[in-house]
Specification:
This protein is an alpha+beta fold. It has two domains: 2-74, Arc Repressor Mutant, subunit A (Orthogonal Bundle), CATH 1.10.10; 78-249, Beta-Lactamase, CATH 3.30.450. Helix content is 44%, strand content 18%. The protein has helices at residues 2-18, 29-36, 40-52, 68-74, 78-98, 140-147, 151-158, 174-187, 229-249; strands at residues 56-58, 64-66, 101-108, 111-118, 133-135, 190-193, 200-208, 214-223. The chain has a six-stranded antiparallel sheet, sandwiched between helices. Helix 6 packs across helix 8. The N and C termini lie far apart (57 Å).
Length: 265
Amino acid sequence: MEGSSQLNSVRNAARLLKEFSRTDRELGVSELARRLELSTSTVHRMLATLTAERLLERGRSGRYRLGLAMYDIGANVGPNLDLHEAALPVMAVLRADTGETVQLAVLDGLESVYIDRLESPHTVRIFARVGTRLPATTTSTGKVLLAALPPAELDARLALWEPERGTPFTIMDPGTLRARLREVAERGWAENREESRVGVVSVGAPVRDGSGTVVAALSVAAPTDRAAPAALARIRVAVIAAAARASTRLGATAGLRPPRVPGPG
């Protein structure tokens, strides 16, 4: 029981740290307790410990923000920091061009993990958070990332795949999934047509580093009522071009062959 309690404390501390973001740079005890569904006394104790370890610091307002130790830790994540710096300016332009939500994701096992996100300026948005994980088999970013894996590695990961039907459009058959991934690898981009969430479509394209290796995927997600065939075709072209620009900013020159881009429909 003691070991379990300690693991829960570590898990709650990790959850607490992940509540801080670009939009929520400072948070108070009550707000964190509400979000984490923990007592204020428990959150207060965690805050005190994390502050003592310099992972958090307390501002004059009494609210907390990430501390210097977090930046020291982050500095050791060089590849992702380079990726953020390369992608964010491109993502901002892509959001302005499409008017839709722009996302950057990396692959972890069989999950697509969103490491950057810029919300659509429209009133009707697709709400999610940085750090959100979705089955890679259901998302355009995930399909791009899976399709880029060496065949042996893809086989090893898909051997662990346990499909779950998130929507009526979720791919459940291994043969169908592999055929889709072959298409993605051939044409250089992927789509998600309501496979992870009903009413939402997305288009994703690969981001490559200086060696030409796919290190991330860039996507635009939109509600189906703003993604008629002509609009989706424009989004597709914009995403592919933006992913190529982000790749160039990372030093990529190899692997940037022009993808096959169909017209509307």
